[in-house]
Design brief:
The protein has about 500 residues and is an alpha/beta fold. It has 16 helices and 20 strands. The chain folds into three domains: about 5-65 and about 465-500, Roll (Urease, subunit C, domain 1); about 75-165, Diaminopimelate Epimerase, Chain A, domain 1, CATH 3.10.310.70; about 170-455, TIM Barrel.
Length: about 500
């Protein structure tokens, strides 16, 4: 595609609305938008006409983990190994600095320390993962080296492993380039990515990719303390590395608060139906101290809350942060997930200007919808109506932005519409459909609301004059999208700064 051209569509979407029109792209920017039907003229611009197919700004993912994606791609693939003999043959000679990491371990293989004693030295660390089912074989040496027991797959439980794989610079570069291609093919041009502590070298790797003119994806980073305590120094260190970057920026901090309702790790105000309360011990005082310290230093904070008790307490924490003359938070603090929040919390979120970061594809992760629905009833009874209530968030004026928690799911616009606009599981079963949102609202959450979350809405997130020409051409028109066709919606073309990427 040439650099200067006219883009035409019967269905251009921007900031909540579709319109029939066209826009001029020049030198990577949207020079002028016209909300009227295009008529051929004798000007020198070439014309790209998408007909009735939708054109939207590029998507923005407000909560992703490249590190989580990377560690799952790292190491030898042993999924085809049906015997210990095959396994040993596959991983032999694949060590890096005395460590063997492999993925795809089959559950039926019976492994113990003795199996590897003949073929590997005693000081070899061996970690064999099955990421889909979250189990692993970890030998004694690896347990000592990485403090990982093969059971705790949280970032806190695996931080030494994450640090090790990120130290493998060339492998990380190669996998990131593939990751970048994947996200661009899905229509994502910006993401807010969670790094751990000081990023364990990831920031430096991506900066080098940028300096080599290989970086297209634009990334804002949030530091999540897992191996070390919360530290303002991590922010200063990352900012010093990125001070002259045009595509990488440090934004603030992220911390986990509670867990899922399903496993009784969500902080639920009135407890669970069987009388139990949250199984986790949550240090709200420490979370508050960290958030206020970050806020006082000009950094934003996102707190990952799922239960109604956690969300309410997070709002109380943010209410103590700096506000402007209108009573809105000065820094762009956010609550991520909001699985089971009290609808009354959303009004206060809107008043303070707290962003919501939701997972619109969340229903797609459950293989058995009946199991999930029945478990929800079992846990919270009639309160199930508060589950994933994005409808109430938007009605109360909360700025709702979309996220994936990638690698939990990979960004997929059609899937997000099927799950988020029709509230259906993959098997077609609907759940709390009254909490769903419209197609236009879903596209808004992916575009301008994501831009507002990242503080880039003056130049990204809209099809508007003088905005960057980051936009997508989809393969369908709005009228053809319904609960039966939503999953067929795909990104046909991705343009970044006016250049065709996909």
């Amino acid at each position: 595609m040439i650099e200067n051209y006219i883009v035409v569509s019967k269905n251009i979407f921007s900031e909540g609305n579709f319109f029939d029109g066209y826009f001029i792209v020049k030198d990577g920017l949207i020079q002028k938008v016209y909300k009227k039907s295009y008529k051929k003229s004798d000007d020198s611009y070439k014309v790209f006409d998408s007909g009735e197919n939708i054109i939207i700004p590029c998507m923005i993912d407000c909560h992703s983990f490249f590190t989580g994606y990377y560690v799952r791609k790292f190491g030898e693939d042993i999924s085809s190994c049906n015997s210990t003999e095959d396994l040993i043959k596959k991983i032999k000679g694949k060590e890096i600095d005395g460590v063997i990491i492999a993925k795809g371990l089959q559950k039926n293989l019976k492994l113990d320390e003795n199996i590897f004693s003949k073929d590997f030295p005693d000081d070899m660390s061996i970690l064999l993962f099955n990421w889909d089912e979250e189990f692993a074989f970890v030998n004694k040496k690896a347990k000592e080296k990485f403090l990982f027991d093969g059971k705790d797959f949280s970032s806190e439980g695996m931080w030494k492993i994450l640090k090790f794989v990120l130290e493998q610079k060339n492998i990380c570069k190669e996998i990131f380039i593939d990751y970048q291609k994947l996200l661009l093919s899905k229509g994502v041009s910006f993401c807010k990515d969670m790094v751990f502590d000081d990023s364990y070298g990831l920031i430096e790797i991506l900066k080098e990719i940028e300096e080599n003119n290989e970086l297209i994806l634009k990334i804002h980073f949030m530091s999540q303390p897992v191996g070390y305590n919360f530290s303002i120094e991590n922010a200063k260190k990352i900012e010093s590395i990125l001070f002259n970057s045009k595509k990488l920026k440090f934004d603030g901090y992220n911390q986990m608060v509670d867990g899922s309702v399903s496993v009784k790790e969500a902080d639920v105000v009135d407890g669970y139906e069987d009388g139990d309360f949250c199984k986790m011990e949550i240090d709200y005082e420490k979370l508050e101290n960290d958030a206020i310290l970050a806020d006082s230093n000009g950094y934003r904070f996102s707190l990952h809350g799922q239960g109604d008790g956690a969300v309410s307490k997070i709002i109380d924490i943010f209410n103590k942060c700096k506000k402007n003359e209108n009573g809105k938070l000065v820094n762009r603090h956010a609550i991520t997930d909001l699985e089971f929040a009290n609808p009354n919390s959303y009004k206060k979120m809107a008043e303070l200007g707290i962003f919501a970061e939701i997972y619109p594809q969340i229903l797609s992760i459950y293989d058995d919808s009946n199991e999930k629905i029945n478990l929800t009833y079992e846990r919270v009874g009639d309160r199930y109506k508060n589950y994933w209530n994005r409808r109430k968030m938007i009605d109360e004026g909360v700025i709702v932005s979309n996220a994936t928690d990638l690698p939990l799911v990979i960004d997929d616009l059609g899937d997000s519409i099927y799950s988020g606009c029709y509230h259906k599981f993959n098997d077609g079963i609907s759940f709390v459909s009254e909490n769903a949102i419209s197609l236009e609202e879903m596209l808004t959450c992916w575009t301008i609301n994501g831009a507002k979350n990242l503080g880039i809405d003056k130049k990204y997130g809209k099809i508007e004059d003088n905005y960057f020409a980051d936009f997508l051409v989809l393969n369908m028109n709005p009228i053809s999208i319904n609960e039966n066709t939503a999953k067929d919606l795909k990104v046909d073309k991705t343009f970044i700064s006016g250049k065709l990427i996909k």
